[in-house]
């Protein structure tokens, strides 16, 4: 009889321990998976951390860089009584900000950390060489964009030709979808400066203009 009572008591204690453990685990904060963030250099990067648990709304949250640097929360939002979202914003990021980051939370029930996610910073592309002159007339210039070699990151989704009179202040820009481009309706015997602009995906994806081609139209 004593053995049966001892076994029954042990069973009850085990059940109570499991219930308590489940309760505490449900109350303690934890995160949904944190995803990588990719932005172009000079833009703002935003990580969104989502914490779950019954007391998630009372948690303290911050973003932590791999080197231990802490980034304060920029915005918080209650999704429901069991889920809490916090946004963290890194301003005008550069390549030096590219690193691993994770979410950290603290509450009365304990602490929680997310997986490390990567901040990927892409450099907008810029041609290494100036356009090449293929043909010239009194009112036109035929150029090759010469934009296969770049500084920065691809893929290239847009190519543009930017040109102006070297003696003027105005500038015109035209999208180009071929390796060559003909500038029409130019003034005879006039010097022009021509550059190429390249754009990659994402906000702020247009790089600085490449080196200029400076050339002159023929006399009429």
Automatic annotation (TrEMBL):
The keyword Repeat applies. Gene3D superfamilies: Immunoglobulins. The keyword Disulfide bond applies. InterPro entries: FN3_dom, FN3_sf, Ig-like_dom, Ig-like_dom_sf, Ig-like_fold, Ig_I-set, Ig_sub, R-tyr_protein_phosphatases. Keywords: Disulfide bond, Immunoglobulin domain, Repeat. Residues 29-114 form the Ig-like domain. Residues 127-220 form the Fibronectin type-III domain. Transmembrane segments: none annotated. This is Receptor-type tyrosine-protein phosphatase kappa. It comes from Macaca mulatta.
């Amino acid at each position: 009889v004593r053995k049966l009572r001892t076994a029954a008591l042990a069973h009850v204690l085990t059940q109570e321990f499991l219930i308590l453990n489940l309760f505490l685990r449900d109350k303690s904060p934890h995160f949904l998976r944190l995803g990588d963030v990719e932005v172009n250099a000079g833009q703002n990067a935003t990580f969104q951390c989502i914490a779950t648990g019954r007391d998630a709304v009372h948690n303290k949250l911050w973003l932590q860089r791999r080197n231990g640097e802490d980034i304060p929360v920029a915005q918080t939002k209650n999704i429901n009584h069991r889920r809490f979202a916090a946004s963290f914003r890194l301003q005008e990021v550069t390549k030096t900000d590219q690193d691993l980051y994770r979410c950290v939370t603290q509450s009365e029930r304990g602490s929680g950390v997310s997986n490390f996610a990567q901040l990927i910073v892409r450099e907008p592309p810029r041609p290494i060489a100036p356009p090449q002159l293929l043909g010239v007339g009194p009112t036109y210039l035929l150029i090759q964009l010469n934009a296969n070699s770049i500084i920065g990151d691809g893929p290239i989704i847009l190519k543009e030709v930017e040109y102006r009179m070297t003696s003027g202040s105005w500038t015109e820009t035209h999208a180009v979808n071929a390796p060559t481009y003909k500038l029409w309706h130019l003034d005879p015997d006039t010097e022009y400066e021509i550059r190429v602009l390249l754009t990659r995906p994402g906000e702020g994806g247009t790089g600085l203009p490449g080196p200029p081609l400076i050339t002159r139209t023929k006399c009429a």
